[in-house]
Write a structure and sequence with these properties.
This protein has four helices and five strands. By secondary structure, it is of the alpha+beta class. The protein is globular and about 40 Å long.
Length: 147
């Protein structure tokens, strides 16, 4: 555990103000998405804006580096936010959806996002065509697995 704490302190020195987050709510998906980021295939993520209402500091900020965690909470990668769009679900473009690196087309993206965040999704959020999303585009700064 000390190594993890030392590593996090080192990362906070290197990347001041970096937050830490997981890309998924289950281990298999977290591992799969981390691999997509490491391979350069996933350069974006999105969440409903309502996820940030109680913690506005967690909102991605352009230029800030953040740490993507492995399922066990250890740091996996550092990414830097390039762009943040607050955009209605219906206005997400096919180009934006493909940056998430998970779907073959915009229709598959819509189905996945609706399943994940909609009224029948894990989060129980009311998701409709006018739901405001926070769509973050990022670049991989450092893969900590090869550090």
């Amino acid at each position: 555990m000390n190594d993890q704490n030392d590593n996090m302190e080192d990362l906070q020195d290197t990347y001041p103000g970096a937050g830490t987050f997981r890309l998924a709510e289950d281990e298999a998906r977290c591992n799969a998405l981390n691999k997509l980021v490491a391979a350069g295939k996933k350069t974006a993520t999105c969440l409903p804006f309502s996820e940030f209402e109680n913690d506005p500091d967690a909102l991605p900020q352009v230029g800030r580096a953040d740490i993507i965690a492995n399922w066990d909470g250890t740091p996996a990668m550092v990414v830097r936010t390039l762009k943040v769009d607050r955009i209605k679900f219906r206005h997400v473009t096919p180009q934006m959806a493909m940056l998430e690196g998970e779907d073959k087309d915009i229709e598959a993206w819509r189905k996945r996002v609706t399943k994940a965040f909609g009224t029948k999704g894990e989060k129980g959020i009311e998701l409709d065509r006018d739901t405001l999303l926070v769509f973050e585009t990022f670049e991989l700064v450092e893969d900590l697995g090869v550090r």
